[in-house]
Amino acid sequence: MSKVTIHGIYDDDEQLKNGAIKIVGMGLHVKEVFSPFPVHGIDPIIGVKRTRLPICSFIYGVTGASLATWMMWYMMISDWPTEVGGKPNFNFLVNWPAFIPITFESTVLCAAHGMAITFFLRSWLMPGVTAKNPDPRTTDDKFLMLLEVNADDQAKVESVLRETGASEVNVK
Amino acid sequence: MHQESEIRKPLILGNKSYKDITDDIIRPVQGKANKWWWLVFTLSATTFLWGIICLCYTIGTGIGVWGSNNGVDWAWDITNFVWWIGIGHAGTLISAVLLLFRQKWRMAINRSAEAMTIFAVMCAAIFVTMHTGRPWLDYWLFPLPNQFGSLWINFNSPLVWDVFAVSTYFSVSLVFWYTGLIPDFATIRDRMTKPFAKKMYALMSFGWSGRAKDWTRFEEVSLVLAGLSTPLVFSVHSIVSTDFATALLPGWHATIFPPYFVAGAVFSGFAMVQTLILIMRKVFSLESYINLKHIEYMNIVIIITGTLVGVAYLTELFMSWYSGFEYEQYAFINRATGPYWWAYWSMMTCNVVSPQLFWFKKIRTSLIATFILSIVVNIGMWFERFVIIVPTLCRTYLPSTWNMYHPTFVDIGIFVGTIGMFFTFFLLFARFFPVIAQSELKSILKSSGSEWKKKGHNESEHH
User: Fold this and answer.
1) Residue B390 scores a pLDDT above 80
2) What is the distance in angstroms between the Cα of A127 and the nearest Cα belonging to chain B?
3) In this structure, are A82 and A107 located in the same domain?
4) Count of structural domains, chain A
5) Cβ separation of A140 and B19 shorter than 8 Å?
6) Which of A42, A33, A29 lies closest to A3, judged by CA?
7) Which pLDDT score, from 0 to 100, does residue B10 have?
8) Using an 8 Å Cβ cutoff, are B332 and B317 in contact?
């Protein structure tokens, strides 16, 4: 059974969602959806799982906090404690409030950059990567639903797409 | 879908479609720069060059070419540093805090406001790195292992907190700004026909395709970065304020400083955003996207933060009297009546009086009044930092150490040079980057576009 690629191009995000609901209702899998802005509500319809990036960000943040805390304990309390302005520095607990600003900054630094780098790696966004959207108008004003279906289902799918308001249906 | 009441004024005027949004915002990037752009760019770049010359003179000859002296060891350098950092705070506030508060009106202005933050922090960094006197030793500010027995930095000092705070602020703002730009670069890439430009934007867009999962991740990253940037912006200027507050000088050693500085930063930042945006929207014909509602909302923020600053002034004055401490009392008598009284009263007029004018609807919806007052506010905020630093330092505890401060042409040259640098970078940004977050704006077209509101479109009609 040969597979055929179908592009369903919509002008409106609500129509795209209706189309996706019908296609998924037919038992078919929507391979990808390309849009010029995030279409809220499309994820549960086409089966996109919730992103775990915020969890990553939390882990990176905790790493940043730990790193900064350890660094300041080592440098100010353990390795070379110096008395500055008579401030108590004989153990970590008495000096700890002064370490808060840098610990906070380090948390934010590691959380933000760690998450951004993870995002770029997971979505494979790098300088030099070629874009995957099949139609350049999807970054302008068109919404594209990419389907890979068996040749038998092609006619049914095309009619569903047109019924739900697709302005163009292209078969590759 | 985001539901909005029909009686709210629309955020996008004119009968705009998604394609119109793309066309309007990409047009300045696709077209050629006009003669006004070239004129202002030449002016800014020349001023920037003069600033660089003054900087080279400073590094080559020594910090003695500045007007700073034994008593007034911080003067225009730190005034300018705090001024620029303060200006930068509006960008982060608009992008981060307004995102957390779900204020859709931020979408038309956040891109240029964040760009302003990046450039303002770069200008601030020049002062803080150059004022050390031996800038080639600035790496000593970082906790790097070394051959002095590994002499570490003093983590108890706000000056060291500043190093971490400002670098974190700069890098996180850059990441936030750039991540938001990626989908818009993709739009330009897909529209450009000139091969070199297409290649450049393709590189800058990192291969963005607009897939559903990528958009989900993008929104989540924006949300988390906003959540991280909000405490960051408050912490950075609080830390800058502790540069003064943890010192023992009368007039500096006050606990009001952190909230006072943060409010002041947002105040001057929004004023600078107004100045830039009023010009930009006219030049690029973006009045449908940045309309009177945006201008008015920003003026309301200026009222709030300006009032906070005014209340902080009153608090300082009250506490200095109530303390009964004659040195603290004198610090403020000196500010108002001493040799720099003219700076103090300029500050008071510009910062306390002018934002209160925005209570009048006629003034806060007038573009001319907004433009003039935004410049007045920025001048006032420069004087505020000057008044905090110079009059205090020229009259400290011991009268035999009292002296005056006069800026040299180098001080003035570097400051003017950073203004030139700021506008140079902003003009480059406006020429090559999309100045409005157009993909974000498209997402609110159906809920906040004027034609859509008229038709009464809402979610129920599509089911």
Assistant:
1) yes
2) 4
3) yes
4) 2
5) yes
6) A29
7) 85
8) yes
Number of H helices, E strands in chain A: 6, 4
Q: Quote the pTM value.
A: 0.94
Beta strands in chain A (DSSP E): 3-10, 30-34, 143-150, 168-171
By the 10 Å C-beta count (0-12 exposed, 13-18 middle, 19+ buried), B357 is classed as middle
In this prediction, the residues of chain A whose per-residue pLDDT falls under 70 are: none
Is some CB atom of chain B closer than 8 A to the CB atom of A83? no
Give which of A143, A13, A119, A111 is closest to B221, Cα–Cα. Answer: A119
| CATH number for the domain harbouring residue A33 | 3.30.70
Cβ neighbours of B187 in A, within 8 Å: 36, 139-140
Residue A142 main-chain phi, psi, to 5 deg: -115, 150
> Cβ of A55 under 8 Å from any chain B Cβ?
no
Q: Whole-angstrom Cα distance, residue B218 to residue B210? A: 10
Check residue B12 and report its DSSP letter: B
Condensed to tens digits (0 to 9), the pLDDT of residues B56-112 reads 999 999 999 999 999 899 999 999 999 999 999 989 889 898 988 989 899 999 999
Cα B160–B164–B169 angle (5° rounding)? 140
**Identity (one letter) of the amino acid at B7?**
I
What chain B holds in terms of domains, given with CATH numbers, is 18-134+154-457 (1.20.1630.10)
Could you tell me the residue range of the domain that residue A74 belongs to? 53-122
A88: contact with B, CB 8 A cutoff: no
pLDDT at B2 (0 to 100): 63
pLDDT for position A89: 84
A17 shares its domain with A68:
no
Q: In which band, very low, low, confident or very high, does the pLDDT at B461 lie, cut at 50, 70 and 90?
A: very low
- Check the CA dihedral B105-B106-B111-B116 and report its sign: positive
Contact B208 A131 (CB under 8 A): yes
Which of B157, B159, B168 is best to mutate for the A interface (most A CBs within 10 A)?
B168
Residues B201 and B181: their CA atoms lie apart, in Å, by: 11
- How high is the ipTM of this complex? 0.95
- Read off the pLDDT of residues A3-43 as tens digits, 9 standing for 90 and up: 899 999 999 999 999 999 999 999 999 999 999 999 999 99
Q: Which residue of B has its CA nearest to A97?
A: B156
Residue of A74, A108, A117 for testing the chain B interface, max B β-carbons within 10 Å: A108
Interface test with B, best of A123, A130, A167 (most B CBs within 10 A): A123
| A103 contacts chain B (CB < 8 A) | no
Do residues A60 and A29 both lie within one domain? no
Residues A33 and A78 in one domain: no
Sheet holding A3-10, edge to edge: A30-34, A143-150, A3-10, A168-171
* Residues of chain B contacting residue A76, judged by C-beta atoms under 8 Å apart: 152, 154-156
Instruction: Name the token pair of B10.
Output: 């629309």
The answer to whether residue B463 scores a pLDDT higher than 60 is: no
Sign for the CA dihedral angle at B190, B196, B200, B203 comes to positive
Alpha carbon of B414 to those of A137, B63, B127, B276, B389: distances in Å?
A: 47, 13, 9, 21, 18
Do A97 and A150 belong to one domain? Answer: no
Confidence class of residue B462 from pLDDT cuts 50, 70 and 90?
A: very low
